Structure formats: C-alpha cells, structure tokens
Amino acid sequence: MSYKKLTIHFLLVIGLAIFTFSQKSLANLTVGVAINDLNNPFFLQIVKGAKRKADELTNGKANILVVASDYSLNRQRWQLAQLVERNTDIVVITAADQQALASDIQKAIKQGTQVIAVDVSAAGVVATVATDNVKAGFQACTHLINQLGGVGKIAIINGPNVSAVVDRVDGCNQAIAKASGIQLLQVDAQGQGSQAGGEQAMKTILATYPDVNGVFAINDPSAIGAELEAQNRGKRNIVITSVDGAPIMQQALKNSNALVSATAAQYPDLMAEKAVELGYQLKQGQKLSQQLFLIDPSLVNKNNVMQYKGWAE
C-alpha cells in the first residue's frame, strides 16, 4: 500500500490526536513519529520516510503513530509517555527542547522503546540522525560570498537555539572567515525560523545597515520572509541564501528576479528512514557503531533547481 493510500484513524485521548497509519493485518512493529508541526512539509517528509522504512522492514505490516507537539514541551512530554504506554517499539522524535526531555526519553528507553532523534539532537536518545548542518551553513554562505564576488556586507538571520541552527550559523561563520573582503554585520536579527519572523528580522537589518549586500537565513521560511521585506522596500541588490530545500524555496529559485539565490537542501525523509533502521537494529539486539549519523546536504541554486527533485510526495 502506498503512502498516499494509507487509512488514517483519529484517536482522541485526553486532547491528544494520534494519527494511526495501519495495514489490514496486525502490525509486527509499531513506530511512533513525534514531530513539531503537521503543517510543515519538512516534518511531513519525516513521517513519509519513517513509514517507508518501517514498511520495508516488516513487509508492509508496520503500524505508524504520528503526534505533533506544536513546539510545546509539555505536550511533547505527554505525547511521548502516551506512545510508550501504547507499547511503541521505536520513537523517531524532533525534540521541542534539546535538554528538557532527557528524563522522559530515558524512562521510555528503560521501558523498551528505542528513541532516536532526527533533525536536532536531544539529550538521552540512543542516537541522532541529522543533516550535516555545519556543512549546510558553509555551502550556503560560500555560495553567497561567491555571488557577491568576495566583497560585501553580510547579515545573518538567526533562529531557535537548537543544535541545527547553531551548527548552520557556525558553518556560515567558517565560510565568512575565509573571505577577507566580507564584513559580517553585528545585528540581532532573530527570525524564529518563520516567514513572518524573517520579514521582521530583515526590517531590523535594513534599519541598521541599509547598505547590506547579502543575507544568510537559517531556513527557507525566514529567507522567503526576508525577500518579501527587501522587495517591499525596493531593495533589489541583496543576495539571500538559506538551508532546507523546501518546496517554497524550490519554486522561488525558478524566478530569475528573486533575491534568494540558493539553499542547502536537506533530506528529511532519508533522516527518518535511517532513524527507523537504527531503532530496528536495536530492537533486534544489535549494537550501534556510533551515536551521531550525519546526512550531507546538497546546494540547490538557480542554475540547477530544475534538476532538483525536492520533497516530492
């Protein structure tokens, strides 16, 4: 049965919606996918990848439970407990907080549930699968610097204080450090990883440094927001790059007049596939060779966007 043909059951348990993707036969393996936002295509790709790998491992007999925290720590803590109570074998989690879930995760593991973090690290998990975010930031900012001819003023639109964001900014700073003609502007441009936040951050940047040439945004939504604000202010000579490879950026890069120039694409479905594979190995009594597994990003720009498959369903 394909991903699109799955039956969806809504189980409301004290206000918690658990989406159950099931086959006609009883499941041999139950995989929980704890994400942050059901409306974000990035997280939906995590669900897709987890489902695909679980079905591959069980000949289509896997049971998938999907919960979304809406970035609420308390909600995710409760959801994790509910997944454990339902005898979930593996939980693939995008943590709402990197540290605060440690005791909850350890409790889940002690009760037989293997918890694997994806996208961002989380204290207490048995393993983490993520994009090589340092490399992603480096790729995006190297492209930005090249587009500026190695000379210019660059600002960074930051985001939530999680490992993925910190590493992207670190990678960008590494690229800037190699370019003597680039000035990194010191501005508190916090975009919160959203389009609206990106617009506000760009407003702050332009108010402080109207002569800015380039902007690195930590994800595609904030980059798109930055472009909207710059365009609204008549700024046509700013180059913007980011990280994600999301559909909204894929479309934007097809516009030759867009200020966005490139994104370091992530592969959330592959991250989830690897996470389920690792959890399955642990359930089979195998040991993992390492705790951190990184997946390389790939730079998508206006020249190669037509060849980029994107996060296709």
TrEMBL record:
Question: Can the keyword Repressor be found in this entry's annotation?
Answer: no
Name the domain of life this protein comes from.
Bacteria
Per the record's keyword annotation, is Ubl conjugation included, yes or no?
A: no
GO MF annotations, alphabetized = carbohydrate binding
Which SUPFAM superfamilies does the record match to this protein? Periplasmic binding protein-like I
Where is it located? Answer: Cell envelope
- What InterPro entries does the record tag this protein with? Peripla_BP_I (IPR028082), SBP_2_dom (IPR025997)
One GO biological-process annotation of the entry reads: transmembrane transport
- Just give the chief location class: other
Domain called Periplasmic binding protein: residue spans:
31-287
**What is an example of a Pfam family matching this protein?**
Peripla_BP_4
Q: Which GO terms describe its cellular component?
A: cell envelope
For this chain, the family text in UniProt reads: Belongs to the bacterial solute-binding protein 2 family.
Return the protein name.
Periplasmic binding protein/LacI transcriptional regulator
* Native species: Catenovulum agarivorans DS-2
Q: What is the lineage of its organism?
A: Bacteria, Pseudomonadati, Pseudomonadota, Gammaproteobacteria, Alteromonadales
